[in-house]
Amino acid sequence: MASARLKILLAAGALAVGIGGCADLGYYWQSVNGHLTMLSAARPVDDWLGDEKTPAPLRTRLALAQRIRSFAVQQLKLPDNPSYRRYADLHRSAVVWNVVAAPEFSLTLKTWCFPVAGCVGYRGYFQEAEARAEAARLAAQGLETSVYGVPAYSTLGWMNWAGGDPLLSTFIAYPEGELARLVFHELAHQVAYAAGDTVFNESFATAVERLGVQRWMNAEAGQPGDAARQAYQLFDGRRRQFRELTLATRRELASIYKQKEAPAHAAPALTALKSIAMQRFRDSYAQLRASWGGYSGYDPWVARANNASFGAQAAYDDLVPAFEALFEREGRDWHRFYDAVKHLASLPKGERRKALGMESTPTDQQQGETDG
Predict the structure, then answer these.
(1) Is the pLDDT of residue 260 over 80?
(2) What is the average pLDDT value for the chain, to the nearest integer?
(3) Orientation angle between helical segments 227-257 and 176-188, nearest 10 degrees
(4) What value does the mean pLDDT take over residues 56-68?
(5) Residue 264: its pLDDT value, please?
(6) What is the pLDDT of residues 211-226, one digit of tens each?
(7) DSSP-derived 3-state class of residue 64
(8) Partners of 329 in the beta sheet?
(9) pTM summary value
(10) Distance (Å, rounded) from C-alpha 298 to C-alpha 191?
């Protein structure tokens, strides 16, 4: 028992590095403790389904999650392993809270570097208060910061020997399409991972989730008039429109920030241009929101939008079209697609971009300025 616990501690310690941050003792401990707490709360889904105390709505969601999990293996050829076959109730809104930070005139996130995972542009905390304290510390250094809750994270398959990544209360109640999207996304991280290239990793997983949910909805959500399909189409349509808007704003900001090498006295002009771009973004969002009949789901994001939040979102978007094109080039064959992505992950970062047909992304162009 002691030996097994030591192994879990060591594995969780490695995970702590992966969650995001340099390994000072306090940070390391909160990561280990938080992950162990999550693991200890997880029980096999079959146990929950067989427990008469399990609320009926939760039982229904867990059964749906297992259908999604089977679909991921059978139709998307994602890993068939212990992940997402257990469930934990965390009694909180997020599993971790990520901190991201960027300079005043850059979309490139500050990065934290460590073994195995390489450098990532976020630092995760199992306690929201600790995340906000870190954000305040970074803001005091002149960085723009953002803190956001994360419903799930991937251990990249390293913890499958200990039960794998569990289903969590933080996302189990998501609408059907969103639940499928999240499971597909997180499992994709177990297929391929390029150390130190967050944009590559997240864009790949986002491409898998988009392609996967399309198949799930077509195969499992019933007829075109099915409520789950309609709800997802409405939700995803709004999300795509919002991402198009934020992409346009990122491009505008990146163009402005290219001028930051100008003499110091030019800073006020850059500030003015940045302010105009941000106001244009807010005005455009207000028009978009009105076209949605007043749907306000993105209001909190827009209210706090800054370089850090734009930079964080870029990781999930920038290379998605390139991965979708790669899927088509590989004949829409999942095995061939994954093999191609694994090969790309083995290449140096610059070669990856060229192989994907992209010399660089807006966030690549300033990479390295804020490594920490």
Answers:
(1) no
(2) 87
(3) 50
(4) 97
(5) 58
(6) 999 999 988 865 555 7
(7) helix
(8) none
(9) 0.86
(10) 31
Would you list the domain boundaries of the chain? 2-355
CA distances from residue 221 to 22, 105, 185, 226 in whole angstroms, order as listed: 43, 45, 19, 6
- Residue 8 reports pLDDT greater than 70: no
What 8-state DSSP symbol labels residue 262? Answer: S
d(CA 208, CA 21) in angstroms, rounded, equals: 27
Residues 236, 244: Cα–Cα separation, whole Å = 12
| β-pair type (86-88, 167-168) | parallel
What percent of the chain lies above the pLDDT cut of 90? 67
Q: In whole angstroms, give the CA distance from residue 229 to residue 227.
A: 5
Angle ∠(98,103,105) on CA atoms, nearest 5? 135
Distance spanning both ends of the chain, measured CA to CA: 38
Distances (CA, A) of 93 to 40, 183, 277: 18, 18, 33
Residue 158's nearest CA partner among 282, 17, 360, 308 is 17
Enumerate residues 6+ apart whose C-beta is below 8 A from 226.
none
pLDDT of residue 225: 59
Pair 228, 175: CB distance under 8 Å: yes
C-alpha–C-alpha distance, residues 297 and 33, integer Å: 32
